[in-house]
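Ticket 4471: requesting a sanity check on a complex prediction with succinic acid. Repro inputs:
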Amino acid sequence: MKDLFDEIDTHQPERQPIGEGAVLLRGYALQLGKDLLPSLHDIGAAAPFRHMVTPGGFEMSVAMTNCGQAGWITDRAGYRYDSHDPVSGKLWPPMPDAFLDLATGAAREAGYPEFSPDACLINRYEPGARLSLHQDKNERDFANPIVSVSLGLPATFQFGGLKRTDPVRKFALRHGDVVVWGGPSRLCYHGVPTLKHGSHPQLGSVRFNLTFRKAL
Ligand code: SIN
Ligand code: FE2
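Returned C-alpha cells:
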C-alpha cells in the first residue's frame, strides 16, 4: 500500500531547487530565530491577527496581519494592499530590521540580490487551517521574488505551475525553512493543505508564515 508520505518530499539538503528561479533554503531563518519571535509578538500586539473575508464572502481559516509600508488585505471589495490596518485605521507596524535582514539575505542566497520588500504578510495557522492553491498577483511588478518563511508547526507546501491544473509537488516545511520563488516561477500556484495537530517547542500549537513582497 502506498504511504501518504511517499508523495511528500522530505529530503533535507540545505539548498533545494524546487523550480526554475525557485529554491527551498532549509533552516535559513534559524540563526535569526531569537530576534524574529519577539518582533512577531510585538506586531501581533499592535495589529492583532484577524480572519479576513474573501471577495466571495468566505472567512479565511488562516488568521492574518501585516507589517511594512503596505499590508495585504481582503474583504468583500477585493484583494489589495493598503498602507493602513482597516481594523484600527492606523498604519501597519514598521518592518523590523530582523525581518528585513532575513528576507533580503534569503533573496540574495536565491539569486535575487536587489530584493527590497515593502510588505510582509503574516499568516497564523492553527491546526485545521489551510490556504488553498493560489497565485500571488496583487503586487505591482512581478519582477521581484516572493520570500516565504516558516515558523512553528510543520506544514506541507504545495508548489505547482503557472496554471491551476498543472501538477503540484509537495514539500515538508519546518521551523526556520525559507522558500523563495521568482523569475519564471514568480506566478506559480502554491498552497498549504490543512495543518495537522502538533506542538512546537517554542511556539506551541501554531504555525506562522512570513511572506515578504515588494508590493508597491
Ligand atoms: C502564502 O502563500 O501566503 C503562504 C504560504 C505558506 O503559508 O507557506
Ligand atoms: Fe501566496
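Notes from triage: The chain has one domain: 14-204+206-213. Leaving this open until the requester confirms.
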